[in-house]
Amino acid sequence: MYNDEQGTQTDEGLPDGEFSSLAIDEMGNLSLESFIRELPQDSYNCSSHQGTGSILGNFCYSSPLPEHRYLATPTSWTSDRPPRPKSPWGCLDPYTSEDQDREYVGFATLPNQVHRKSVKKGFEFTLMVVGESGLGKSTLVNSLFLTDLYKDRKVLNAEERLAQTVGITKNTVCIEEKGVKLKLNVVDTQGYGDTINNTDSYKCVSDYIDHQFEQYRRDEIGLNRKNIQDNRVHCCLYFISPFGHGLRPLDVECMRALQDKVNIIPIVAKSDGLTYDEVKKKKSRILSEIDKYRLKIYQFPDCDSDEDEEFRRQDMELKRSVPFAVIGSNMVVDVNGRRLRARLYPWGVVEVENPYHSDFVHLRNMLVRTHMQDLKDMTHDTHYESYRAQWLCKSQRTVDYDFCHTSI
Ligand code: GDP
């Protein structure tokens, strides 16, 4: 584990910059050519030609058109050859699979190739947390990713907080699970909403997001565009205080400033301080205010029509949980022989991952298991595209203005 930028928490075993994000267009661009390239050498060396078709290793095809198919290899060609090593792809491999699979060219293995390639590359995700100090942002992030991202954080006292301006800090941690690597960047907005006059609190956050878009735009037109470091913010967890009545003016203004730049997911912080009914009322009030002020939060994509019943049920439950009422804890406690993250009170235990106690599990499932790629796609296809379009309009206007003034 290591934290970059801050220069802290370094684990030598995980080199920095090794993984980069997997752009969806890159996935889509895999060609059959690259499939052939990745095959073992002995499987594609041409040994002879026969009519219009060519023999590739020990299979041949006669045409690239739809009717082309692998032909059974005459035994005389293979009898004196050593047995072929088994393919890593198994199913739908023309050499090893069942007779009916020989009907296929093999591009049904494309998802496997994409899978292998993306696992090798690793994934990258940038999460931003916005909310005033003490709402449990760092505790929640640690609980979500089972890590300690804030080891060296200095908590300021009231006097120091009054003097400070909003400071953006970025921590990076590399997590590996079952061979899949995730480089997680967490952008924190220290000092947000802490001063007496918070008018410009969100300006700094908005500028940071724009700056990452601008960096990406420049990298995209630069020479080394193959190895672009994607630091764009894919998701913003916006923490709403559980103690107020719905949204505060600062929440409305901040969400309005960020809504076209980032996927906002509203969070009711420290929901263990609220009863079941209070949570319900708070959620409905927040949603009606979001509606009233026409604020745009992240919209979950519709379920595909071919999804099964269970998936649809879970998807519906997830959508109903917004804004997620969450609980965080850095403590692991023993509850009836089970070790779990929980908050220990004199009157009982609040379990972080218990769906009856909070929406933590829904939030984590959504962020990590079901919607991470969609959040990245939305960032690239919608928010970044809108930034780029605005930039192009602005630069076009500057060109037109210069042209008018030089030609006068
Ligand atoms: P941050 O400043 O927003 O990052 O807040 P912290 O994560 O540092 O949490 C501030 C305090 O709130 C700490 O004492 C935490 O133990 C406590 N805390 C964090 N999450 C929760 C929660 O879900 N419920 C309650 N009751 N307290 C929490």
UniProtKB/TrEMBL annotation:
The organism's place on the tree of life at top rank: Eukaryota
Location of the region described as Disordered in the Swiss-Prot/TrEMBL record: 74-93
Molecular function in Gene Ontology: GTP binding
GO biological process, one term: cell division
Septin-type G domain location: 121-394
Presence of keyword 4Fe-4S: no
Listed Gene3D superfamilies: P-loop containing nucleotide triphosphate hydrolases
InterPro entries per the UniProt record, alphabetical: G_SEPTIN_dom, P-loop_NTPase, Septin
Keyword Lyase carried by entry: no
GO terms for cellular component: cytoplasm
Keywords carried by this UniProt record: Cell cycle, Cell division, Cytoplasm, GTP-binding, Nucleotide-binding
Subcellular location as annotated: Cytoplasm
Family in the record: Belongs to the TRAFAC class TrmE-Era-EngA-EngB-Septin-like GTPase superfamily. Septin GTPase family.
PANTHER family: SEPTIN
Designated name of the protein: Septin-5 isoform X1
